[in-house]
Amino acid sequence: MKTVWLQRLLKWYASIQNFMRGRYGRFDQLNKTLLVIALIGILLNPWLPFQLGRILALFLFLLLYGRFFSKKIYPRSNENQTYIRNIEKMKHFFSRKKQTTSNQQTYIFFSCPNCQQKLRAPKGKGTIRVTCSKCHQKFEQKV
């Protein structure tokens, strides 16, 4: 009698495994994002008109379940890879903006008196002797 519940549990587990065979079944980055946005929609529902948060959350949950139980594995994987690439582009765009502002803080930019080529040098070095990379003229610049 004690092993009946274990046998039923194993049978139920096998049926779940059989159901999930050949399905995408991954909780990837895109599914995580859909879940977080759906939960935010549920939390913001009291302040949104026309139950907009609930409708948004329902739509996103249906999309999440559709992706999770889909038998089209490669298109779901490609969707996730495209999402990751787009997120990386956005991160790179914003980090590049931050990097240019840090360049302005650590370098001084000036132009060659002969050819007007833009040059840079680290701040706080005093008066340095600079050779232009374009016309090779040597001059002194205070940085």
Name a few traits of the molecule.
143 residues, alpha+beta, two-stranded antiparallel ribbon, two-stranded antiparallel sheet, 4 helices, 59% helix
Question: Could you explain the architecture of this structure?
Answer:
The protein is built from 4 helices and 4 strands. It is α+β, with helices and mostly antiparallel strands. It folds into 2 domains: 24-86; 102-143, no CATH class. The strands form 2 sheets. Strands 1-2 form a two-stranded antiparallel sheet. A two-stranded antiparallel sheet has the order 3-4. The mean pLDDT is 90.
Q: How confident is the prediction overall: mean pLDDT? A: 90
Whole-Å distance between the termini?
87 Å
Structural class: alpha+beta
Strand order of the largest sheet: 1-2
Helix content: 55-70%
Summarize the structure.
This protein is an alpha+beta fold. It has helices at 4-20, 29-44, 52-68, 73-106, and strands at 107-111, 118-122, 127-131, 138-142.
Write the layout of secondary structure elements.
Layout lengths: L3 H17 L8 H16 L7 H17 L4 H34 E5 L6 E5 L4 E5 L6 E5 L1
Antiparallel strand pairs: 1-2, 3-4
Helix pairs in contact: 2-3
